User: Fold this.
Amino acid sequence: MEHYNMNLTLKVWRQKNKEDKGGFQTFQVKDISSEMSFLEMLDILNEQLINEGKDAIAFDHDCREGICGTCSLYINGKPHGEWKGNTTCQLHMRAFKDGETITIEPWRANAFPVIKDLVVDRSSFDRIIQAGGYVSVNTGNAMDGNCLPIDKNRADDSFAAAMCIGCGACVAACKNSSAMLFVSAKVSHLALLPQGEPEKRSRVMNMIAQMDKEGFGACTNTGACEATCPKEISLSNISRLNKEYLFASLTADK
Amino acid sequence: MLDAKIPAGELNNKWTDYKGHCKLVNPANKRKLEVIVVGTGLAGASAAATLGELGYKVKTFCFQDSPRRAHSIAAQGGINAAKNYQNDGDSVFRLFYDTIKGGDYRAREGNVHRLSEVSGAIIDQCVAQGVPFAREYGGLLSNRSFGGTQVQRTFYAAGQTGQQLLIGAYQALERQISLGNVTQYSRHEMLDVVVIDGKTRGIIAKDLVTGKLERHFGHAVLLCTGGYGNVFYLSTNAMASNATAIWKAHRKGAFMGNPCFTQIHPTCIPVSGDHQSKLTLMSESLRNDGRIWVPKAKNDTRKAIDIPEEERDYYLERRYPAFGNLVPRDVASRAAKERCDEGYGVGSSKQAVYLDFSAAIVRYGKIEVSKQGLENITEDQIIVLGKEVVKEKYGNLFDMYEKITGENPYELPMRIYPAVHYTMGGLWVDYELMTTVPGLYALGEANFSDHGANRLGASALMQGLADGYFVIPYTIGNFLADEIYNKPITVDHPAFVEAEKTVSDRLNTLMNVKGKQSVESLHKRLGKIMWEKCGMARNAEGLKQAIVEIQQLKKEFWSDVKIPGEINEFNPELDKAGRVADFIELGELMCIDALNREESCGGHFREEHQTEEGEALRHDDKFMYVSTWESKGEHEWELHKEELKYDVIKPSQRNYK
Ligand SMILES: Cc1cc2nc3c(=O)[nH]c(=O)nc-3n(C[C@H](O)[C@H](O)[C@H](O)COP(=O)(O)OP(=O)(O)OC[C@H]3O[C@@H](n4cnc5c(N)ncnc54)[C@H](O)[C@@H]3O)c2cc1C
Ligand code: SF4
Ligand code: FES
Assistant:
C-alpha cells in the first residue's frame, strides 16, 4: 500500500452546549498521513488547537475499532463517512486526497440533542431497551446451555441482528430520524431465539411505544439506514418487526 | 497480616461450604440496603443486575454514554467454561489446573477453583438471556481452542464474544432499571471514595456533561472499573479505560496487588507511526488456524508470498512442538520479540512477524469439498471454498485488519506484533472480593485475583461474569447482613463534604497550571518510559531509571500541563488530565513492584532471571507471594506479602514443549 501525506481544510460544527445555536468553523491541517485514522487526524487538530490556546473539539469515541458504538460524526454528509459497513473510528485517511475540504457535523435528530460540538445525547436508546429489549430471566434460573438446541441458521440470523452497536447512524441517515433499524435489530435478535419467544409480543409493543415517545420519526422505507449502518443490519429486520408488531396488536390482551 | 479469608477444608468443598454458611439478608432488609456499582462492563453490569434482582437498591456509574459501551464490548475471541461438551477430557479440575499453570503459579488455588466451578453456569445464564453463541449444525453450542490448553472449551460468538456477553448483561441491567431496582448514571466518573469510621460509605462522582460534583451514599461500593493497560499509552484497551477509580481507592487505603503484572498480547496490528493513538488486537482465536512465522534469513526483504515454504521459520512450532502456535501469550510474545530483536522481523518497521492463514484455507477448502461431495475441483476452487469457512469464523477480524492496514489478509499473511493488553494486577481482594477497606469491593479486571502472572485467553470474560453473577451476590450478603442496623448516612456528613472539597481542589489546581504541554503529549511520554523499561523485558537498572524519570515527569505534569476549556462544562481534556495524573503515580508503583520481584514469572520477565533457553525463571523459594502495596504518601509504599500455598498442585517449571 502506497502512503502519502496531505493537507486538508476541515469545516467543523462547533456548539458550546445544548442551548447554544452553534455554527461551522474552518481549520487547516497539514502533513496528514494516509495511514492515520480519521480520529487520529482529529487528535492532531486538537493538539494544534490546544497549543494555540483554543478549546479542543469535543467528539465521542472509545474503542476505536468499530465495536463500542461510541463514535459518531456526519462526514461530508454521510454518517460514519464514505466507506461501506464502517464506523468513523475505522475510517482511514487514505479515503481522502490532498487539498480536500471535509465537513464534519454531529448526528442530527430531535431525539439526540447535542451536548457539545460533535457529541450528542443518545440515552433515548437505553430507554428503548429498558422498555423491553431483554429476556426476563434472573441470574441462577438457567438450565444447561445445551438443553435447547437451536437451528444454526436461526442462531446465525439472530446473531446478525445482535451485532448492532447502538451507534445511531441509522437515525442520523434517515430523513425522518426514525430509529426503526435499531429497534428492529433488537426485536429480531430476541424474537428469533426460543428464549425470547414468551415476551415477544409485549417487547415489540413496548419498544415501539417508547421509540415514539422519545420523538423518533416514522419509518417510510427509504432504506437510507441500511445503506449507512456500519454493521450492515438488514432491512429484513424491519419487515420482521412489522410482522411481529401486527401480530402483537391483533393478539394483544385488551 | 493480610488475611485472604480462604475457607478451610478440601479445595473441592471450599465454595460450597462458604455458600452454605455465609450470612444472608432477608428480602425486606435488602430493600433498605444501598449498593454503589462503579463500572458497567461485564463485571459491573452482571453484578448490578443480579444485586437488583435480589432486591438491593443499586446505583451504577459509568463514564461512557451508555453501559453498553464499556471496554468489555471489544473482547473478541471467547469465554472459557469447563463444560466438556467436546468430550475431550475437560473438567473443573483441568480448567483450574490450566489457569494456575498458565498464571505461572502466582494465583490462589481457592479462588481459581471457585472460578472454574462456576464457569459452566455462566454459559447457561448467557444462553438463557439470549446470547447468540456460535452453534453447530445440530443446534448445539460450538467450541474452539485457546492458548495454554489442549482442550476445546472456549465458547464464542464469531469475533464479537465480548459484545454479545456485554449486551446480555446490559439488557439484564436495563431490565432492573425499568423495574426501579437500579438507577443508572452514565457520563459520570467516580473521583473519590468516601470512608467513614473505617468503612466505605459512598463516592464522589462528576457529571461529565455539566462538570458538577455529586455525593452518593452506599452501604457498600463495588469497583468494577476495568484494567489499567493505558498506563503504557498504546494498548489494545479502549481510549478512555483508566485507573482512576482503583487509584483513588488505593490512596484511601486499599492495597494494590501485583501491580507490575501486565499481559503483552502476541497478536496485535503493529504500530504504523507517531500518530498512533491505540493498538488493535487480532484475537488469539486466530492462532487456532493461523501459523506464525518469520523468514529464516535475516533482513529478508522479499514479499511474504515470494518466500518459499522451506525458507520460513515457524518458530513457535519449532520451539514448542506440544502446544505449537497455541502456547500462552507471554511465551508467544517473548518469542516474537526475540526474533525481531535478532533481525528476523518483517514489514517496513521490522517490528512484526507473519500470521498466515494459507494452510488453513486449503485445509478447510478440502474439508468442504468432501463435505459437499464435489468432484474435479481445482486448487483455486478449493481456496475459494476455504476462504468462505475462514470468513465465517474470523470475518470481522479480517475486515478490521484490512480497514486499518489496507491489506487483504485472505491473500497476504497478517503482520502482527505484541502489544499491551491486560493487567493481571489490580486492587488486592480477599476471597470475598473485598479490598483492605471494609465495604469496598473490586471485581473483574480491576482486581488482582485469579490470573497470577499471566492470564490465559478467554478467561477474563469468565472471571468478570463469575465475579458479578455468581460470587459477589453471596459474599456481599456476608458483609451487608451486619449493616441492616445502619441507616443511610446523609451526604451532608463531614466526610462527604471533605472528599468533595479534595476532588474540587484538585480539578481547580489542574485547570490553573496553565502550562505549555498537552495532556496527550505527557501521556505519550509516560507510555514510552513504561514500554521501554517496564514492558516485555525488564531489568533492575532500567527500572531504577524509570522510577526517576516518572517522578520527574510528575513534577513536569503538575507544573506545565495545559488544559483548554472550563471546569464546569463538558471537558474531555480535563477528564483525561485527571486520569493521566493517576497513571503517572501508578506507573511509578508498577516499576517499584517490578524491581522488587527479582524473578521472572508469566508476563513479568526480568532479564537477569532466565533459563539458558530464554524462558522465564521463577524463584519460588523467595517470591511465592502476592506483592501487596500499601500507600504511605507521595512516592512511598509499604510492601505486605500474601504467601501463596499450593495444597493440590505442585508448582513446576512451566513446560509447553
Ligand atoms: C481488544 C480486547 C479483546 C479481548 N478479548 C478477550 C477475550 O476474547 N476473552 C477474554 O476472556 N477476555 C478478553 N479481553 C479482556 C476482557 O475484555 C477484559 O478484561 C474485561 O472485559 C474487563 O471487564 P470489566 O468488567 O472488568 O471492565 P470494563 O469492561 O473495562 O469496564 C469498566 C467499566 O468501568 C467504568 N469506569 C471505569 N472507571 C470509572 C470511574 N472512575 N467512574 C465511573 N466509571 C468508571 C467504565 O465506564 C466501564 O463501564 C479482551 C480485551 C481487549 C482489550
Ligand atoms: S442498526 Fe446499525 S446504524 Fe443503527 S444503531 Fe445499530 S449499528 Fe448503528
Ligand atoms: S470508537 Fe468504538 S465504534 Fe468507533
User: Anything to note?
Assistant: The pocket of iron/sulfur cluster (ligand 2) is lined by residues A 164-170, 181-182, 185, 229-231, 233 (CB under 6 Å). Chain B touches chain A through 83 residues (CB under 8 Å).
